[in-house]
Design goal:
Number of helices: 1
Structural class: mainly beta
Radius of gyration: 42 Å
Oligomer: single chain
Distance between the termini: 87 Å
Largest sheet: 7 strands, mixed
Number of domains: 6
């Protein structure tokens, strides 16, 4: 048990030294006492001596909750806290409130008057107010009433009410605020009360200032004039719409002279601004307020700002430049230009949408501009009008594009689709350029031989005479009878060809170094690793990861992710299967899709296991990933089997995504991955699959299974 030698709340003056002692009354072994503070850290000057915390010459910044914690690593820690309050006092203000029951706004004989005094202090409730009249203390009487805490004013406000004011009440009143017995200096305010000592303010806007116009980006001044106010109050500015902030980012801006200065004005500053008197030292009466309208002028807002327009030659083209907004709304000029040259045409109707119609010809392809003006400026719609065809779009997922030729040469199967082939004149071929180190090695035309490109349909060309193992830049552009289109480029790289197994005969145990055509995802954070018991790091993390492969042999390989440093929580590793180019016409009746069974074994042992996701990546012009299986957390010490059906809509890959957990005991492994045609059976086995790089412990059974499958297949036929 622990107890504090001081009260739960300690109030001190600035500059005092403070000692806080935390006495431990029980505990074995002897607890250690630790001190902390909220909010923030302990002051730099804080010292600890045993169980005592010493604070020298405290300031208001040292105030807060100080926590004493006793710890001996047996059971839960014991805690106590003390609230340290450092006295402060500032900003003494006064208010004069005429007789509110009679709507008075001036000091009048025979009516009530209230003087109020407030100081910002800590602790607020400990402030003592003393009132004086011409230097003599004021006490409660029939004509003078003292209110220690005025319920009609802000908390901590003291008031003196003068009842049925007489000439004898015209005097100088003083309010003194202090902390009794404290060294904090007292604060004092004097108020001279006479029939002409105060007067209500008059708030107005100068002539012509109700609406102020300025061009966007300029500077402007909004003005509210204060007259006859005694004392003169400051002016508060705000937006009339409640949800809008001032340009400074605050709800209210105070100005001493009633002038609000705005710089670099933007259109979102446009609107009504409210100016009103502030309740500062002076009359406590109804606020005066008025409004000023800010009008921000800006050039027309047009649509489109830029548009790439493709068309066939000798067809009509229409360019439209819509005016969305404009301030002032009246347009002053509309002009059209081609390649910077003014197009002479009848003056367009300034009230209609600007429009230009013409027949596109090889000679008038180019950049067209529509320049629309108002008194604030000019804006432009830009159109790139051309009969050049759009660029081709390379297809990067061609299965096994490399073919080895004789010697050290190889060829590459380049595939692409044509973007919007119907937009321009008929495409008759493609111009292909092969470059190495910025030098052109080959440039020629690919003839389509009368076959026009179709949207979304793959086209192919074999690039030959490439040297192993070099990579090359390929540039490709479509050709029409009038022009050549936009070039697009990519890098083609040599990779070792691999004869990918079909999904119907594939079980991968990762025994071959080529890991059955699987590959690492280049966009992830780290990679999967191929290993077995014999190649394990002897210093690997204990209590996580498999000891053997799925079959229980130390020689058998598997793929795994290592969760030790430098890995951090959330890091991802993705392993990609080969791309399976499957057709979609053999599926169940009406579905049009072929079903496949995906089967694999996983090992997720450890208290820091993250997540294993299996994703289906369907390839088309773009790739789409979707999670089809997931598992998180510790799953026990053994290998476990998972299987599920998929029905991909096109060429696909299976992606194994391992996500690192909160710490190092989080290794995840996979083994014996199988992708077979047809739906999964209740007990998914490898009876109808040939093991390629599979487990070493069942070679005879696997070959017998394969032979049985072949025999049954012949018998069925």
């Amino acid at each position: 048990m622990i107890r504090l030698s001081v009260n739960d709340t300690v109030v001190v003056d600035p500059g005092q030294d403070v000692l806080l002692t935390c006495e431990v009354t029980a505990g074995f072994p002897q607890p250690t006492v630790l001190w902390s503070r909220y909010p923030g850290l302990l002051p730099l000057s804080a010292q600890t001596r045993g169980q005592t915390l010493i604070l020298r010459a405290v300031t208001p910044a040292d105030a807060g909750f100080y926590n004493c914690t006793a710890v001996n690593n047996v059971g839960n820690p014991a805690r106590k806290n003390v609230n340290l309050v450092v006295r402060t006092m500032s900003n003494l203000t006064f208010q004069i409130t005429p007789d509110s029951n009679k709507d008075s706004e001036t000091i009048q004989m025979g009516r009530d008057l209230k003087l109020s005094c407030h100081v910002d202090a800590t602790p607020q409730e400990k402030v003592n107010y003393t009132w004086y009249k011409n230097g003599v203390p004021v006490y409660n009487s029939d004509s003078l009433i003292l209110l220690r805490s005025d319920p009609d004013m802000a908390p901590g406000t003291s008031s003196l009410e003068i009842v049925d004011m007489k000439f004898r009440d015209l005097a100088t009143y003083s309010c003194v605020a202090n902390f009794p017995g404290s060294r904090v200096p007292e604060l004092r305010v004097d108020v001279n009360i006479s029939q002409n000592s105060v007067s209500p303010p008059v708030l107005s806007v100068p002539p012509g200032g109700q609406i102020v116009s300025v061009r966007e980006g300029g500077n402007v001044e909004l003005v509210c004039l204060v007259a006859d106010g005694k004392p003169r109050p400051p002016i508060l500015w705000s937006r009339t719409e409640k949800d809008l902030l001032m340009p400074s980012g605050t709800p209210v801006v105070e100005t001493p002279d009633g002038r609000l200065r705005l710089r670099n004005v933007s259109r979102d500053m446009m609107g009504a601004y409210r100016c009103q008197t502030a309740p500062y030292n002076g009359l406590n009466i109804k606020r005066r307020e008025t409004q000023v309208q800010l009008n921000v002028q800006y050039p027309p807002i047009l649509d489109p700002v830029f548009q790439d327009m493709r068309s066939r030659n000798y067809q009509m083209v229409t360019l439209r430049c819509a005016v969305l907004r404009s301030n002032p709304p009246r347009l002053t000029d509309i002009r059209w230009f081609r390649n910077g040259d003014f197009i002479r045409m009848p003056m367009p109707d300034l009230k209609e949408t600007p429009e230009l119609k013409f027949k596109l010809e090889p000679a008038n392809n180019g950049t067209y501009e529509c320049r629309v003006s108002n008194s604030a400026g000019t804006s432009t719609c830009t159109f790139n009008v051309t009969a050049q065809p759009y660029n081709a779009e390379f297809y990067f997922d061609t299965p096994n594009p490399v073919r080895i030729l004789k010697g050290n040469n190889y060829s590459y199967n380049l595939q692409w689709t044509q973007r919007d082939p119907e937009a321009t004149d008929r495409i008759i071929g493609y111009w292909i350029v092969i470059r190495k180190n910025k030098q052109t090695l080959m440039s020629k035309q690919i003839d389509l031989k009368g076959k026009e490109p179709e949207k979304g349909v793959l086209m192919s060309h074999t690039v030959s005479d490439l040297r192993i193992p070099l990579s090359y830049e390929v540039r490709l552009a479509p050709i029409t009878i009038y022009s050549i289109g936009d070039y697009v480029s990519r890098i083609i790289q040599y990779s070792e060809p691999y004869t990918y197994p079909r999904p119907s005969d594939h079980v991968c145990g990762f025994e071959d170094e080529r890991i059955c055509g699987f590959s690492q995802d280049r966009s992830d954070v780290f990679d999967w690793t191929r290993q077995n018991h014999l190649t394990q790091n002897p210093k690997r993390s204990a209590n996580t990861g498999p000891e053997t492969d799925r079959s229980g042999t130390k020689e058998g390989y598997y793929m795994y992710i290592e969760a030790s440093r430098p890995r951090v929580q959330g890091d991802k590793a993705r392993l990609l299967s080969p791309l399976f180019n499957v057709s979609s016409n053999r599926g169940p009746k009406g579905s049009g899709r072929v079903p496949y069974c995906v089967s694999f074994y996983y090992h997720m042992k450890g208290k820091h296991i993250g997540t294993l996701n299996v994703l289906l990546r369907v390839r088309s012009i773009a790739s789409v990933d979707s999670v089809i299986w997931t598992k998180s957390g510790h799953q026990g010490p053994d290998w476990k089997k998972a299987f599920f059906d998929i029905s991909p809509s096109g060429p696909f890959q299976i992606v194994f995504e391992g996500i690192r957990g909160p710490s190092f005991e989080g290794d995840i492994a996979i083994d014996d991955v199988s992708i077979t045609i047809g739906k999964c059976k209740q007990e998914n086995t490898v009876a109808n699959a040939v093991l390629i790089g599979g487990s070493r412990s069942l070679p005879l059974a696997n070959w017998l299974t394969f032979g049985l499958c072949c025999f049954l297949s012949l018998l069925y036929r």
